[in-house]
Amino acid sequence: MTALEAKYGQENIGILSAQIPSPTCMGEKWEWIREYYPQFVTRCFFGREKKFLSFPRTVLYDDRDRNVDEFNSGDGIGVLVPQLWNSAHHKKGWWE
Q1: Taking Cα atoms as reference points, which of 54, 62, 56, 75 lies closest to residue 17?
Q2: Contact 78, 71 (CB under 8 A)
Q3: pLDDT given at position 34
Q4: How many angstroms separate the Cα of 28 from the Cα of each of 23, 34, 41, 81?
Q5: Plot region of 9 (φ>0 → left; ψ -120 to 50 → alpha; else → beta)
Q6: 82 Cβ partners below 8 Å, 6+ apart?
Q7: Which among 26, 38, 60, 76 is least buried, having the fewest CB atoms inside 10 angstroms?
Q8: How far is CA 83 from the centre of its chain?
Q9: Distance of CA 95 to the CA centre of its chain
């Protein structure tokens, strides 16, 4: 069980992933999800504009500032996961 599953319940979690312009992108993402998160295979959404899924009681954990900012400008809650390429890179991760 992941930390997010413990916090929100597995039945309340889906995977939202951006597509990149690559002929192998989708196949590789599906393989990765099937291998590491098979419990979410039926709850996967793909698209670059994550803000369209910003509804009350939805939470987005993302490593891209723009995605989190746009999600927060809707009705959802966006949480920036610290990575070297974003503005939260100096903070401890949400998992610690």
Answers
A1: 62
A2: yes
A3: 93
A4: 10, 10, 13, 22
A5: left
A6: 63, 88, 89, 90, 91, 92, 93, 94
A7: 38
A8: 14
A9: 14
Smallest Cα–Cα separation from 77: which of 2, 1, 4, 6?
4
- What CA–CA distances, in Å, run from 43 to 13, 31, 36? 8, 14, 14
Q: What is the C-alpha separation between 87 and 81, in angstroms, rounded?
A: 10
SS3 assignment for the chain:
CCHHHHHHCHHHCCEEECCCCCCCHHHHHHHHHHHHCHHHCCCEEECCCHHHHCCCCCEEEECCHHHHHHHHHCCCEEEECCCCCCCCCCCCCCCC
Closest to 61 (Cα-Cα) out of 39, 24, 88: 88
